[in-house]
Structures
1.
Amino acid sequence: MIGRGYDDFQLFDLWCHDDIFFATRMKSNTVVDIRDLIYDDLEQNGFRESLVIIGSAQKKMENHLRLVEFYDDTGKLYQIVTNRFDLSAKDISELYRSRWQIELMFKRMKQHLQINHIHGRTEQSA
């Protein structure tokens, strides 16, 4: 699952326990506890990776996540947390960029085909 700005830490822990992979953009106010800096070349090659636990003292995750930070073409910094440790930072950034292209496709469909609402048949589409 690739999402944008979710912070349901209990759900993230459940997904980690159930081996469901996710990558999501962190909200700006998310509390991040950096446990280990894996790779820091943000200024030269555009990536930084850390092992983190997210959440406040009252609402903190049990599982470690990987924080991947990168700049887009306009210089905007993105922070993606994921439980995928097998992919490169570049792969994670490409997953997120691909997700954005899907969002743009839906936007164009709604505008050009005059679709106001897209219906789905699963809980996730509600």
Note: The chain has a mean pLDDT of 84.
2.
Amino acid sequence: MSFNIESQISSCGGKLLKLKHDSKSTKTSMDVNVYLPRQYFEEKAGKIPAVYYLSGLSCTPQNASEKAFWQPQADKYGFAMVFPDTSPRGENVPDDPEESWDFGLSAGFYVDATQSPYHKNYKMYSYVHDELPRELYQFFQTSGLGAGSTVDFLDNVAITGHSMGGFGALSGYLQQYSSPRKYKSCSAFAALVNPSQVQWGKKGFGGYLGSEVAQWEKYDPVNLVKVVSNNGNDTILIHQGTSDPFYKDQLKPHLLIEAAKGTSWEGKINLNLVDGFDHSYYFVSSFVPQHAEFHAKNLGLI
């Protein structure tokens, strides 16, 4: 399997590649954007780490690529950025029959669906955490785009995300935390931390995973911090705007802090409530520098 380079866009000191490939997980063509920092094009830069950014409801790979301003930070520290899509797409991919914005196309919830008709295509957990990294690694080994550099899409990697993508980042990080550990660090912006208990999550989990609570708990960060042991001194970074209209009824970040009490994650989740900020990319872009520094330290770049 290979990627088609749809376009190469000069951005900051590097290049943003808009890629397309056929996915075995979703059985569809998938779009993904990759930013290669300036270091990638320098002689003998060696292996460059990667940060995966998972977007929120109704988004595509374009939103964060255009609005989050990760590129200057990637150039500053020397990591690549990967912006996957939020769901499978195509004429034969089932959508929400009610055509709502919080389920179906653009709202894959980063889970592997088990319920018909979504189980055939909506395998976003396997796609993001397994297939996409492997395929990117293989493609860039032979792409000839750099000057002797490679991107370590598999091992020296971090993950972050916004809203539904913040949930996906937290869930994937905790599920992939051991045996063997995949991500060096995790952060989130306005994350949906306890989807089992709020409307967005109940709709998404119910539609994709069915009614069994045990299936929901496999993905829910509030449950995962209780059963996944922090075997080091690892921390999670979260920012949440207090003027976010979804803060109190959907996102509820305090529930993750409460769930961590008495566990190995107590005191290891750094929740920053920032006054006046909303749910938009004005908020995300304001705190990307702090998240970039956090991941750069954990990726060994500082």
Note: The first helix runs from residue 61 to 67.
3.
Amino acid sequence: MTAIAKIKASVATPADRAGMIDWTAVADELASQGAAVMPALLTPEECREIAALYPDDKRFRSHVVMARHGFGKGEYKYFSYPLPDLIGGLRTSLYPRLAPIANEWNQRMGIDTRYPAEHQEFLALCHRAGQQRPTPLLLQYVPGDYNCLHQDLYGDLAFPLQVAILLSEPGRDFTGGEFVLTEQRPRMQTRPEVVPLRQGDAVVFAVHHRPVKGSRGSYRVNLRHGVSRIRSGRRHTVGVIFHDAK
């Protein structure tokens, strides 16, 4: 266990963990790359406990086999409400740190939408818009599986940032399976970014688009994310999406 993980293992609440993150560094990395790593957000034991939920269908509202929908190969399950305490707590605690970044991005891109300070306020807006189904999910990949490049948009309301936490250890539990982000700028070829993660690391990234400074002000670039082919072993990831779905 790393020194950071040892510290976080003794931290009682997700709010305390969120308070330990260098949010200035996260905002800077998001601004320059569209993604930022938050190391050791979960301990190895917590990662194993969350991954072990996968066979328990009572914890989930739906099960998606990617190949049936052209999403790639692999599968995932959407959690039901109430969410597991740790996942629900992180969703609630990370959102207020990310909302100012999202609002600043929208201002720069000329988008009128502004996000409330607290997650429950944002969920209330989602629910009034008919988006009432929880979106945090648990993904499972085995050899040959992959996730096609995509965007997680589930309705008219979509929070522009989301978080994925790697629950398995690269090189020990699986090989391959890198987190991949692509960025398409106007009149330019697509830029790929491979984000290295260890067990318990979280990556926060743009769901749809982000602002980039140009010679005439900021303009929007389009982003997609996915996972490269698993070569051996089994890979579990938990996705924390802040908007609910229709």
Note: Helices lie at 3-9, 14-20, 23-33, 44-51, 85-109, 119-128.
4.
Amino acid sequence: MEADDGGGGAGAGAGWDFLEWVGPDTSSCVFELLYHPADLARAAAVSRSWRRFVIDNEFCKRLCRRLCPEVASFTRAAVVTRRPEAAASESSRDAELRARERDHAVYCHLGGALVSGGPSEDCILACVGASSTDNFPQEAVDNTLQPQERVNGHSSYWSSGGQDEPDVPESLIYRLTSDLCLVDEIRIRPFRAYFQPGNPIYSSRAVRIRMGHSMLPPGTETFVTDENENLTAMADENYTWTYTSPEFPVLQESVLQTFKLPRPALCIGGIVKFELLGRIQKQATDDRYYICICHAQVMGRSLSPDLMVDISNPADYSILKYLPGASKLSEDDTLNNDGSDSTEWHSLVSRYRQMRHLAISNPMFGPAQRNLLLGPVQFVDEDDYEGGDIDGYMNIHIHMDGFMEM
């Protein structure tokens, strides 16, 4: 920011920089008060000194962490292009500056994605498994993907196994539509057994969710089918949980009940676990407690395909990757890997194929989720992103829905 001092004489027309005038400490306090990524983008566009101040102090990363604390799980950020970048000879200082500029680009885009006003949709893609099932496959967990109480003339619900004690919990695990989803609420509908005397409702006392990622090797993830109850996938050591919600009390009513999270939470890894805590209803025929769910939803927004996490090592989901222009990649590009493609490109294409196959083969998959996954995606070529020209790159790519375009 520059201003004329208005005093005439030698100082007339002289400009001054707000950052130099108030000093770095006070300037940092002011910049920390900015609460929207667009504000930081505007500030970075004022002048080169302001841009350098924003980048050097990692304000975009810090703002993302305030918006969504799960972002602190990322230890590194990367920009992925289809062609590997040629190794450049540069000093350690130049490498550090380049890394800061890269982080600024990635977190600026992430910030825009976190605050964009896209519609909230059911993000469940498939059922991984249930802790128990009373009658498999008739009462399997994949029935909870159906919003209807009856399908093809038959009741559609999941039923736990019976228990003598009411405090025994159950759990249901789902795979979401992408590895990065911003979740704001969950919904469940307990099942009313209208074919039993008194039409009992087998709700749980409370529900809680955990979100995280699988520790299984890539490509080995399995799901419930009519032939496979998939109990081995339910072992807790198969997962790392990075978010746990509060407990929400569940009403003993057969309606779709909504439980809003205290704040939108980022699911890093695309796995959500419903923990059904406590039992209320006994079954008259065996005097045992059951939990039955008719329908479940995880409401939120997918942040892919522009943003993803590194799945090459299931023990490390801490690398946040930004893929500029990923919304226009053609299907042919996912099927034809060139020998010159980067390893990151190969990893993404493999992941895209896996999710696409799952979407096509899953009869429960709805049109909204199918369009989310099967729509075109595109990567930018290396000519569109040059690490040394972040200025031009940022002016083009910080546009988001509800965000700003420089």
Note: The domain at 121-302 is CATH 2.60.120.260 (Jelly Rolls).
